[in-house]
Specification:
Elements (H helix, E strand, L loop, with lengths): L7 H4 L19 E3 L6 E5 L9 H11 L4
């Protein structure tokens, strides 16, 4: 397709970046501390974002789940 025939939407870059890959669990230490209770998590210390231990993850999922 000739660039002059493109619509304005096709020429502008996306405002939203691609979603980040989910953080995976690491095989061994050092583990990050849970932001809620301070216990070790299953995530490495370099994991970006909020890291929670399995118990706090479960409790957070219960709080945010639909109660339909």
């Amino acid at each position: 397709m000739d660039p002059s025939q493109q619509t304005p939407l096709q020429q502008t870059p996306s405002y939203c970046p691609a979603p980040a890959a989910p953080a995976g669990r690491v095989a061994g230490p050092p583990y990050a501390d849970c932001l809620e209770c301070g216990k070790p998590t299953e995530y490495g210390v370099a994991t970006p974002g909020v890291v929670l231990c399995p118990v706090c993850e479960w409790q957070e999922a219960q709080r945010t789940a639909c109660s339909g």
